[in-house]
Amino acid sequence: MIFLKILLFSLSSVLHGGVTERVCNHYIPAQHEVLHDVSLEPLHLMKKRSINQRLRIREVFHSSVNRLPPDKLTLVKHRLLPAALSYWENTLVVRQTAGPIRLNRNCSQNDIIYRAGYYPPYCVHGCEQTTYCGHVPVPYDHLEACRIYQDGHYHETGYAGRGVLNADFVLYVSAVASSKCDPEVTVAYAAYCQLEGSMDRPVAGFINLCPYSISTKLHDMTEMVSTIKHEILHALGFSAGLFAMYRDKNGDPLTERDIFTGRPEMFNNELGVYQWSSKVVRTVSRRDWRVRGAVIQRHFYLMVTPKVTEEARRHFNCSTLEGAELENQGSIGTKLTHWEKRVFEHEAMTGTYTQNPKISRITLALMEDTGWYRVNYAMAEPLQWGKNLGCDFVKKSCMEWIKMRTEQKKSILPFCTKVKSTPLRTLCTTDRDAVALCNLKQYPKPIPFMYQYFSETSGDLPGTAAQYGGSVGLADYCPYVQEFVWRDRTDTIQRGSRCTLSSNTAEVHGNHFLETYGPNSKCFEHHGIWSLKRCNMPAPLKHFGSGCYKYSCNSTVGLVLDVHGKSYRCYKTGQILVVRVIFDGWLTEGSIVCPSCQEICQAKGVTCPPEYNPPYSSPVNLRMPCRGSLLHPRHVQVGIIYHECAGSGDEVLSH
């Protein structure tokens, strides 16, 4: 039996690049926290309505939001929430809500009774003084009158409010430092709180923004917006607590209903949710799952609704795929309520934020399969992870897949097998949107057997293979290429590695590879280690391997890279671009590997010219710097050892 081999190097200095991860533990409300049967329109009328109303979300702010510091308040109200709400309003379409939304009141002791032929529930012991949605007291003006069953009679007390007009969903927004707000883990959490009575669609929900986790730093904006979009989608329908409520395209339930209450027949007390049918989620067994020293059987949860299955098969190019795999680790807030991290990695609805989140067609297909929405697939974002990699990628362990690809002499990306070392070797993510690291690491003790993929290590650590795995547990400990952040010696984040963000540009003294970050940049691999020289003395770099560079595409000349203001044309795949410039008082020498023009430019609609060998380029004379003082000492920490220059002249060098 052949196993994977870890390429291990000694780690002799502190690394300042670190991968990031933030787990989502979705809050699934308890049974008594969800009010059903909000009265909008009878089922027979609602079924006749076309799904043609663009989703209208009305946000209602709790007083806690206004108590945020001014910079955070401005960020939440004028950037984060508008961006997230606008995305979903432009993506989801619903059956038109005929009138205002009036929400039900909480019943005292949670005791309700149904009146024959009339679906809104009545309270047996009267209504609570205050009805909550999450942490927010629902305004009286948003509520129905109190429906009471008393002494054998059904009646209403008090007055119904005006309700919420011109809305299909009411989102109550708070910023409470609750017990669920772990500043290291949780940015926000959200859930539904009331469902309408005819088709069970959520019509009200909440999102709580954890005040101490809201970041105003520019490099955190992508994560902040993505997190809020992610959490709002849980409230709109992507939740294990709502799977049993899903309907087919005709509006009929996919899970059998109780003839008296209209609710799903079974409640799963272990999970705390109504039990869905096999038309929604099914358990699938893989009997040939290869791990370290064994072949085992594993069971997976798959979302098997029609559009999800169709989109998953198309994405992976696997016609026999049964559906889209759901997360199988963690509590119910992570498990089942997200896509499987190993299979979907940077899809925005996986259970942990790691890099470059994308809301894919598969997530939008899930929302369509709820039976409540039509979706605008033009709003889907391109997901590169696993795209067209076939059935083996999604049906076999990452160990098996890496082994097969290695034997076929094919790329093992997005997986990897190199432990971080000094000098630190960086890579590119599969979509080339970021400089990346292999997140393979050694754990202090063996990881669970079903996630052990390595049999041996090269180096001086025999017998520790069981301790090696990827740093993201939800990805089944599969090691993969992941973007990261640069930190200083105080562990403060300085910048990220996403090429498209201008804010990730290094300071001049730290830009050793002449990189340019911005919307027109991508990651390109280096050919070997770059060097910096002054006075004939080298400055060893503590990392190498890849960098972000501005590029352009043209049907006449193909792919062109811009390095330090100079254009370098890629004539063919694998061509080595030699870079040799004087920058910031140092002779900087290195090289970049050209990818195929088609890989980079096809997405821009550019037809690449035929490939051919590059023409001869005459060498350029350069003078090696040998003047000036040392660079500022604080730049030593980012990876260069500087040498004092003894000479006073410049040495002439040729290219």
TrEMBL record:
Keyword Cytoplasm: no
Top-level taxon: Eukaryota
Active site as annotated: E231
GO terms under biological process: cell adhesion; proteolysis
Cofactor remark: Binds 1 zinc ion per subunit.
tRNA-binding in keyword set: no
InterPro entries: Peptidase_M8 (IPR001577)
Names of required cofactors: Zn(2+)
Enzymatic class: hydrolase
UniProt entry keywords in alphabetical sequence: Hydrolase, Metal-binding, Metalloprotease, Protease, Signal, Zinc
GO molecular function, one term: metalloendopeptidase activity
Binding residues for Zn(2+): H230, H234, H338
Pfam families, A to Z: Peptidase_M8
Signal peptide: 1-17
Cellular component GO terms held in the UniProt record: cytoplasm; membrane
EC identifiers of the protein: 3.4.24.-
Family: Belongs to the peptidase M8 family.
Protein known as: Leishmanolysin-like peptidase
Gene this chain is encoded by: LOC106165097
